[in-house]
């Protein structure tokens, strides 16, 4: 599976063989001219089959190869306009063939422009989800198989380096907004100056607040002169959106605008009113009753999807269960997507990641366990079934408090009928669930997270007429998930407290307000207003990701309720008459006045006595006095400093001598001990010659000097006594060796200390 993904990743040459060599350039040019001439005369009403369109032979062949004979309504209306170079706003029911309505114009446009690899990026298709991008990429590969363009799939969760190196060679790129912008920002090989055609699939989603900043940045990077095609089942008509895209005289094609319903005719839709704690048993009973069907179950958060999948897998309903949500690894997502495509009967638990554009074959049922955030989301969710003239069914579970959703659906021309749950057929797996939770702590954790994420999601819904978190019976809901106690939802406690504290600040403001308060409140208010909770659902990220997306962590910080002491501080600030600004220098002076000794380390021995830090503290009286008087004196008194150094040097030398002596003593002790044991004769012999010899080490650290002097004196006195000289020489060598050995025997710490002393001296 992963292998396949890698293969189909970026870039893929649509056609592996090149153009026929015997085809001369001249006829091809003429052929293109003829095609372009014919574009002007396209009359959509006279088009019955794809062969009636003036397409290139490569496109015609591709369509034929994959059994596309008759164009759908949206294809018939849009392709002609696309070939004529118009900007298009295309709207049609879900599953009505919008993909081909923009793929064909892309292929034809690049063909007539005689686009080559050297021309770079010619067409860009942006979609909101990776799965949809992959699906479009596959459709392009099919229809464009006889063309000679290279295409790339640029989506997150894949190897950026791999994509980067090949980006420059792509003629057609299918991508998600985030990844595209990443390449625009970081990839020097990505160049879109030649771009001729831009397509936004699920355009309303691409242009909504969730992708607003990313899309604005992308659009700013694209050439102004281009053709732009927008497609969606719930098309945006927002003037603001269209202005952002700088559409030029766009053609609005909405083939089902005057249709009786806004959902496919083959779709049978029903809803059921049920309490929150009944949802699990209704869903379980539904699955048990539809074991031979292919079903998509929509839930509002990733954590719920994870929990339902894990728990129902344990309960073993007798049908394959799968789960698809945003926080899964990309390869896993693709694997699940393909597995579900191939299944005849299965249940796919999913977030709204799956709601847009995905074309799973033969889906019988769409069950919405959690109410969608709005009617558009409803349309997209149910659109996963009853695609391309097929039939399908959908079921929506509504809480009694969510009944107003029906009005929204009605206003959008959605035919939906009420059905009642048959209590006799209802099976409740809660006892088993409780047992599983008791035996599997990780599952219990998942269950608690699912609970919290659901309550949060309801709280964050924009439409407060439909979604009211206070009306949720959380205790019963927790029980229905197998939990004995409802977990605390701290997020909501915080938000509620915050609302209250906002009110307190406002109240204070009415009397008198300082700049500080105004700033605080404005910040708080704007952050609160800015919240686009729709992302929470559309991006389907886990709680942690939810926090990233909304910056809830930051938001929490910014709008967290003030503690009493903070409030009193605020009061103090407000009442304070002195508005003197405290500079850094003033603050530093204040600290200096307190006579703090910064970073002083005091070491105690086992008896609790202070161990003097000989390397850091001055030893001599003169030096100590000098240090004390130093802060008051500006500059350095060199003469005094010299005396201090000399004095300290004396102490350092003495310290060094003591250390060497101590080391020597220790060594001797060890040797004596060893000798007593008689465990190593050779070693004892080695040291035997030096054993009796106890040199006076007071002459250290400069033995050369001392010995040199002594030798010179003795040379004068006993000129002819060569034997004695020899003895002295060997003695000197021995001492030298001893000294060398001693310095080698110093531990790293001692050596370091020694080095420090010597350095300090310098
Ligand atoms: P779409 O709305 O583009 O996702 O297409 C929905 C389904 O209809 C896909 O499975 C397409 O393969 C199929 N489809 C689209 N156009 C045609 C066509 N002209 N003839 C047959 N099948 C089509």
Structural overview:
The protein has 762 residues and is of the alpha/beta class. It folds into 4 domains: 28-254, P-loop containing nucleotide triphosphate hydrolases (Rossmann fold, 3-Layer(aba) Sandwich); 267-431, P-loop containing nucleotide triphosphate hydrolases (Rossmann fold, 3-Layer(aba) Sandwich); 505-579, no CATH class; 583-652, no CATH class. Helix content is 52%, strand content 9%. The protein contains 32 helices and 17 strands. The protein has an 8-stranded mixed β-sheet with strand order 1-4-5-3-6-7-2-8, sandwiched between helices. The longest helix is centred in the last third of the chain and has 40 residues, at 638-677. The protein starts with a helix and ends with a helix. The model is unreliable at 1-13, 15-21, 505-578 and 680-693 (pLDDT under 50). Bound molecules: adenosine monophosphate.
Relevant terms:
Rossmann fold; 4 domains; binds adenosine monophosphate; single chain; 8-stranded mixed β-sheet; 7-stranded parallel β-sheet; 762 residues; elongated; alpha/beta
CATH architecture of the largest domain: 3-Layer(aba) Sandwich
List unreliable stretches of 5+ residues.
1-13, 15-21, 505-578, 680-693
CATH superfamily of the largest domain: P-loop containing nucleotide triphosphate hydrolases
Q: What count of structural domains?
A: 4
Pairing-aware structural class of the strands and helices?
Answer: alpha/beta
Fraction of residues in helices? 40-55%
Largest sheet, in brief, is: 8 strands, mixed
Describe the strand arrangement of the main beta sheet, using strand numbers.
Answer: 1-4-5-3-6-7-2-8
The rough form would be described as elongated
How many angstroms separate the termini?
69 Å
Return Rg in Å.
41 Å
Proportion of strand residues: 5-15%
Tally the helices: 32
């Amino acid at each position: 599976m992963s292998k396949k993904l890698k293969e189909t990743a970026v870039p893929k040459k649509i056609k592996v063989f090149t153009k026929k060599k015997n085809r001369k350039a001249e006829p091809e040019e003429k052929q293109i001219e003829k095609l372009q001439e014919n574009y002007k005369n396209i009359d959509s009403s006279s088009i019955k089959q794809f062969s009636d369109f003036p397409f290139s032979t490569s496109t015609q062949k591709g369509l034929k190869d994959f059994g596309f004979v008759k164009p759908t309504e949206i294809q018939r209306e849009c392709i002609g306009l696309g070939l004529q170079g118009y900007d298009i706003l295309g709207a049609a029911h879900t599953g009505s063939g919008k993909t081909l309505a923009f793929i064909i114009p892309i292929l034809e446009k690049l063909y007539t422009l005689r686009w080559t690899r050297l021309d770079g990026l010619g067409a860009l298709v942006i979609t909101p989800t990776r799965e949809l991008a992959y699906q479009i990429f596959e459709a392009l590969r099919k229809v464009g198989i006889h063309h000679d363009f290279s295409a790339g799939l640029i989506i997150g969760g894949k190897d950026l380096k791999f994509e980067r190196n090949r980006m420059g060679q792509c003629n057609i790129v299918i991508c998600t907004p985030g990844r595209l912008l990443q390449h625009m920002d970081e990839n020097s090989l990505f160049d879109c100056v030649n771009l001729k055609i831009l397509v936004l699939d699920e355009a309303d989603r691409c242009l909504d607040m969730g992708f607003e900043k990313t899309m604005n940045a992308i659009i700013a990077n694209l050439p102004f002169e281009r053709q732009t095609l927008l497609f969606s089942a719930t098309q945006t008509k927002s003037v603001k959106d269209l202005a952002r895209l700088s559409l030029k005289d766009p053609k609005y094609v909405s083939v089902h605008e005057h249709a009786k319903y806004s959902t496919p005719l083959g779709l049978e839709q029903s809803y059921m009113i049920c309490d929150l704690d009944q949802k699990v048993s209704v869903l379980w009973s539904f699955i048990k009753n539809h074991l031979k069907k292919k079903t998509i179950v929509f839930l509002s958060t990733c954590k719920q999807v994870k929990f339902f999948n894990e728990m129902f897998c344990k309960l073993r309903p007798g049908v394959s269960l799968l789960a698809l949500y945003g926080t899964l690894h990309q390869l896993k997502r693709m694997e699940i997507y393909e597995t579900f495509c191939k299944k005849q009967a299965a249940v796919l638990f999913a977030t709204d990641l799956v709601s847009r554009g995905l074309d799973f074959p033969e889906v019988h049922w769409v069950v919405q366990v959690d109410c969608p955030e709005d009617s558009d989301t409803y349309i997209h969710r149910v659109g996963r079934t009853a695609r391309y003239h097929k039939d399908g069914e959908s079921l929506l579970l509504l809480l009694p408090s969510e009944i107003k959703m029906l009005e929204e659906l009605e206003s959008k021309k959605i035919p939906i009928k009420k059905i009642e749950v048959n209590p006799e057929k209802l099976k409740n797996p809660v006892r088993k669930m409780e047992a599983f939770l008791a035996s599997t702590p990780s599952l219990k954790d998942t269950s608690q997270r699912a609970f919290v994420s659901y309550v949060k999601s309801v709280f964050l819904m924009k439409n407060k007429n439909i979604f009211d978190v206070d009306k949720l019976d959380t205790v019963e809901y927790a029980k229905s998930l197998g939990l004995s106690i409802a977990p605390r939802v701290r997020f909501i406690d915080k938000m509620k407290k915050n609302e209250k504290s906002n009110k307190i600040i406002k109240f204070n403001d009415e009397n008198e307000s300082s700049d500080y308060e105004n700033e605080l409140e404005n910040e708080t208010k704007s952050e609160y207003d800015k919240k686009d909770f729709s992302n929470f659902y559309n991006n389907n990220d886990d709680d942690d990701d939810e926090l990233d997306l909304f910056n809830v962590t930051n938001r929490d910080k910014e709008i967290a309720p003030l503690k009493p002491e903070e409030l009193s501080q605020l009061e103090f600030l407000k009442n304070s008459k002195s508005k003197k600004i405290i500079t850094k220098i003033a603050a530093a002076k204040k600290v200096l006045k307190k006579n703090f000794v910064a970073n002083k380390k005091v070491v105690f021995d086992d008896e609790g006595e202070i161990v003097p830090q000989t390397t850091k503290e001055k030893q001599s009286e003169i030096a100590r006095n000098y240090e004390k008087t130093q802060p008051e004196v500006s500059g350095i008194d060199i003469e005094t400093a010299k005396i201090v150094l000399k004095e300290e040097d004396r102490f350092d030398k003495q310290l060094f001598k003591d250390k060497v002596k101590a080391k020597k003593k220790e060594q001797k002790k060890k040797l004596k001990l060893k000798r007593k044991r008689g465990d190593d004769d050779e070693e004892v012999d080695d040291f035997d010659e030096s054993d009796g010899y106890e040199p006076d080490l007071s002459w250290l650290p400069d033995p050369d000097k001392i010995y040199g002097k002594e030798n010179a004196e003795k040379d004068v006195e006993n000129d002819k006594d060569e034997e004695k000289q020899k003895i002295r020489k060997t003695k000197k060598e021995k001492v030298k060796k001893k000294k060398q050995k001693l310095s080698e025997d110093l531990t790293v710490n001692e050596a370091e200390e020694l080095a420090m002393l010597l350095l300090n001296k310098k």
